[in-house]
Amino acid sequence: MDFAAILSAAVTGAIGPVAAAYALAAIGLNIHFGYTGLLNFGQVAFMLVGAYGVAISVSVFGLSLWLGVLVGVLCAIVLALLLGAPTLRLRSDYLAIATIAAGEILRLFYRSSYAEPLTGGVFGLQRFANEFYELNPFPAGEYGIGSITFSNRDLWVMVLGWGLVALATVFVYLLIHSPWGRVIRSIREDENAARSLGKNVYVYKLQSLILGGVIGSFGGMVMVINTQSANPDSFDPVVTFFVYTLLVLGGAGRIAGPLLGAVVFWFVVVFFDALLRQAIAAGYISSDIIGAPQAGAVRFALVGLGLLLLMVFRPQGILGRKEEMVLNGR
Amino acid sequence: MDSGRSGSRRLAIRLLLLLAIGLLSAILPATSAAAQDSEQNTESVGGTIRGPDTEPIPDIQVMVTKNGAPIGEDTTDAEGTWEIPLPEPGSYDVAIDPDSLPDSAVPREQGGERLTDVQITPGQQRIVIFPLVNPNEQSDGDEQQGSTPTPQQTGPSFGQRFADALLSGIEYGSVIAICAVGLSLIFGTTKLINFAHGELVTIGAMVAFFLNAAAAGPGIQLIFAAILAVVAGALLGGLLERGLWRPLRHRGTGRINLFIISIGLSLLLRHVILIIHGSRPGSYTDYNIQEQLEFGPFSAAPRDLSILAIALLTLVGVATMLQRTRIGTAIRAVSDDRDLAETSGIDVSRVVLTVWILGGGLAALGGVLFGLAEVVAWDMGFKLLLLMFAAIILGGLGSAYGAMVGSFAVGIVAHLSTLWFPVELQNAWALLVLIVVLLVRPQGILGRKERVG
């Protein structure tokens, strides 16, 4: 087995565009879950509306990409209002179930033949980000150190993705250390205490849902700009679970949690993926037990196991404080 | 204090402004887009061909024909893209040459290498996709992924179709109800939202599938296989409670932490099932082909009537148990007020264990019935899970009877929607009902109002 190849694949995965997209989604979720204590299990819905906001604006209506980004953000705000208005008054369980249902409803409608003129149905939409790639300042070629290389195209997406991650991180830092941030953290700790101090808990929760949702929608945009293809089935509920896993891994309720979580998560996932594929190719694992097609399923099973073990043994993740992660929900 | 409040108001105003600007900008360019369409007048068809690993595949032959006459062809370049100009708008057939595909990729559906009747509107540069998968993930062309094979009938009258849809809705609802009752009781007694409940359903169906139909299995008749599956499901439920949830509760793990743990467990179990069983759906060997029986406006196969009868009997049995037996009363007492039940001398741990065993057994039975009504697939339980959630929220969280009422509502809405809307959306409408109910009656149909938020 070629360990150098496995390692360089893992590092490439950890700093690649996909990790940046997940980091953005996790930064948004961190506002919801880490700071406000909202159980949003429909983060993928925000990513989906953001992604399709861009894709539909450009592919179907022929707008410029940048206007598409605005449309995506707008869709995320509308979604947060629609979702939050009824459920944020209810106990946290209701929000969890309603948001995961909303994510599935959106995915099913976006992939239906009804929506095909707009969303491309199960085929999705393609090649809508040319405007972005035309701005690529890097001359064609491969960039990198040793065996960790990126094409100029990937590099440009990474600049966008990680640039947005940096912006969002600074934004969240300022937000959390503002009076507004203190209020939402107090809501997480004790909603009734915040209410008894005269804070309108409902409005704060709604604002938190909107802000985190918009950041999440940028994650979706980076994801589809990277592949130049928006497909409804790449936004299934498992994406939300991945985002949760990496957020908990990095440390929910910490500024750098999502960033560290995304990098470590994708390093580990790609590492095991590559290791498993090499082991199968080299014949260490009989292909009767796990063939190449099943190797993909192993990734999901391992993420599930990882999430389970993390929550049992170290719910605060790498960076978190344990007392902040004993959640009983209100 | 004041600054926080005015700050939030300022934020709200800013967001509203942003919304207004966004709405305007969304409306204005929409009109100019229509104008732009007529400017382009060169029709073409093109796309990017990507393998199962999403890497583009070069050197694939793509051909366009119209009524059998060749129009043009192209070969994908290094980025996997191809484009073929077309002479005029109309209907074309687009096909890839299967021989030029690498061995590791085949069309997702059999016959998927040819797309017939691709409609090209004037000026359209249409993008078409050939979804490729690994060779052993290919499905038959008629097996629509994720949707129930309800035959699209055009012949019978609306009344007939309504009666059929209603009956299958009730059947679907009764299967959801069997699974959801356990989920609701578990929530009622432990306050855990068990996200892995769908996997208990799948495992039940899979155990019966292994015993009944799998090549390596013993090939037992389905009824006995189902009984063994229920026993296995009950054991698994009890095992999960004793081995995982009880120790975690004793450690004082928070409720939401437990919820996330169940999500991890769900992901793990579901994909272990996928590794073992593969992604190909299967069906049981018994009761597959049956004649339809006629009852006035209703017609159904004996299989469907048996599913309905078994499900209804089970539900009545569960209700009787909850209402009449000692353990049933204890379950209701613990759901009502755990602390009060404990001080009255009820052994709460034993009650919770009973609920898990009951829930596991019911979920397995639901899985077998669902597998019999449709197909046995690795993600069948997960698809049912969201409908179960919808059902128990509809009925009121934690109430077993509410779960039953909610399940029938969800099942009937799902199937009646197929009268007017595509089958692929039936579950979406059922979930939409959930959101609507949360808007108008958040505590659910049978739920009690409690102070929340």
Automatic annotation (TrEMBL), chain A:
* Domain of life according to the entry: Bacteria
Keywords of the record, alphabetical order, are: Cell membrane, Membrane, Transmembrane, Transmembrane helix
Where is this chain's protein located in or outside the cell?
Answer: Cell membrane
* Cellular-component GO terms for this entry: plasma membrane
TM regions (residue ranges): 49-82, 155-176, 202-225, 237-256, 263-285, 297-313
Record flagged with keyword Transmembrane: yes
Membrane topology type: Multi-pass membrane protein
| MF terms in GO | branched-chain amino acid transmembrane transporter activity
By its UniProt entry, which PANTHER family does this protein fall under? Answer: HIGH-AFFINITY BRANCHED-CHAIN AMINO ACID TRANSPORT PROTEIN BRAE, HIGH-AFFINITY BRANCHED-CHAIN AMINO ACID TRANSPORT SYSTEM PERMEASE
> What protein name applies here?
Amino acid/amide ABC transporter membrane protein 2 (HAAT family)
UniProt organism field:
Tamaricihabitans halophyticus
TrEMBL record, chain B:
Give TM segment ranges: 166-188, 200-217, 223-244, 256-276, 305-322, 351-370, 428-446
Q: Which CDD domains match?
A: TM_PBP1_LivH_like (cd06582)
Key words of the record = Amino-acid transport, Cell inner membrane, Cell membrane, Membrane, Signal, Transmembrane, Transmembrane helix, Transport
What's the protein name? Branched-chain amino acid transport system permease protein
Q: Name one Pfam family in it.
A: BPD_transp_2
An individual GO BP term: L-isoleucine import across plasma membrane
- Which residue intervals are annotated with compositional bias (Polar residues) in the record? 33-45
Q: Name one GO cellular component term.
A: plasma membrane
Family membership noted in the UniProt record:
Belongs to the binding-protein-dependent transport system permease family. LivHM subfamily.
Please indicate which superkingdom the organism of origin belongs to: Bacteria
Its source organism is: Tamaricihabitans halophyticus
- Indicate where this protein resides in the cell: Cell membrane
Kindly report the protein's main subcellular placement as a broad class.
Answer: membrane
Q: How does it sit in the membrane?
A: Multi-pass membrane protein
Q: Where is the composition biased (Low complexity)?
A: 144-158
